[in-house]
Design goal:
The protein has seven helices and four strands. A two-stranded parallel sheet has the order 1-2. Strands 3-4 form a two-stranded antiparallel sheet.
């Protein structure tokens, strides 16, 4: 990973290679479900780890001001953190998504049907309130997913009481 990033940084002719490589590795590990070591071969990364690395690399090292992303919700990474990273690095993000949380995080949504633009919508104040509720539900779902991942059993009453 580190060797790949240094090669990419050198090809971009940046001055602060070491600092950028450190930031990219830290951000990629923050996005990925499982952390990886800097000396891990790129070919040994899982799908989620490699996508996290590519997003962090694009956000921090790429000079492209516009980033196109297709269904980041299927990438196996923390999708909200990925978007915040890209936007925080002043990237314009155009994203295809079916995820209501991601769609409502945007200032504007382009509605496409049969290959054509049929509408452009701004996110309303009511939708921003709905987004807050969706994020709470998503957080709860992630907690349950992690509990299952670590071999814990779910209980209905715990799930209901924590969701309320």
């Amino acid at each position: 990973v580190e060797e790949f990033l240094y090669l990419h940084a050198e090809s971009r002719l940046v001055e602060n290679e070491k600092e950028l490589v450190e930031r990219i590795i830290a951000q990629a590990n923050d996005l990925a479900g499982e952390k990886f070591a800097r000396n891990t071969p790129v070919t040994s990364l899982s799908g989620g780890q490699s996508r996290a690395l590519m997003i962090a690399d694009t956000a921090i090292l790429s000079s492209s001001p516009i980033i196109l992303i297709d269904e980041i919700e299927n990438a196996g990474i923390d999708r909200e953190k990925a978007l915040k990273l890209l936007v925080g690095e002043e990237k314009i993000v155009l994203m295809a998504t079916h995820d209501p949380i991601l769609a409502l995080m945007a200032d504007k949504r382009i509605v496409i049907n049969n290959g054509g633009i049929v509408d452009v919508l701004g996110t309303s104040e009511e939708e921003k309130e709905i987004l807050k509720e969706l994020k709470l539900m998503d957080e709860r779902l992630n907690m349950m997913r992690n509990a299952l991942r670590y071999g814990k059993q779910l209980e209905l009453r715990d799930s209901i009481s924590k969701a309320i």
